[in-house]
Design goal:
about 160 residues, alpha/beta, Rossmann fold, five-stranded parallel beta sheet, 8 helices, globular
Amino acid sequence: MTLAAPKTIYCIDTSSIIKWYVEEYSPSIFEGLQDRIEALIDKGRLISPKAVFDEIKPGDDCHKWCKGAEGLFVEEAVSVQTIVRALMSAHHNPAKPHKGINGADPFVIAVAKDGGGNWTVVADEHPGSDENRKIPYVCNAESVKCITFKQMMIAEGWKF
C-alpha cells in the first residue's frame, strides 16, 4: 500500500492577497478563483497569520472579503512567536527598519516553518538580497519553500 503524500498547506502573505484580489486576478474577472481560494481555506490548506490581516487597508472590497474569510487568519502560537524572534535576530537590521523583513513578513515565514515540510509560503514580493532581505530571500536561507500566487494556482492545477 502506498501512502499519499500530504497535501501542501499554504501560508499566504499580504503581497499575494493584494496581487490576487486587487491587482491581477480580481474576482470580477476570475469569478471561479474566489471559490477555489475559499475551498482551500475550508480544507485548512490556506492560512495566514493575523498580522497579515492588520496590513490589509480597511475600506475596500479586499478588506471586506478578508474580514469575512473565516478560517483564513489564525492566531500565532507561542512556537511561531519564538521563530519570529529568531528570524528578526538573523534577518532584520534595526538600523534600517524599513529594509528587509518587517510587519507581517516574519510571521508568515514562521507559521510555515513551524508547520513543517509540507508547508509553503505564498508571497509576491521581489526576491530581496543580503542588503534588503524579503520573504523569498529569508525563506531560502531558512529552508522554507516559497512560491508566488501564480505558482500556487499552477501547483493546484487550476485552469480558467
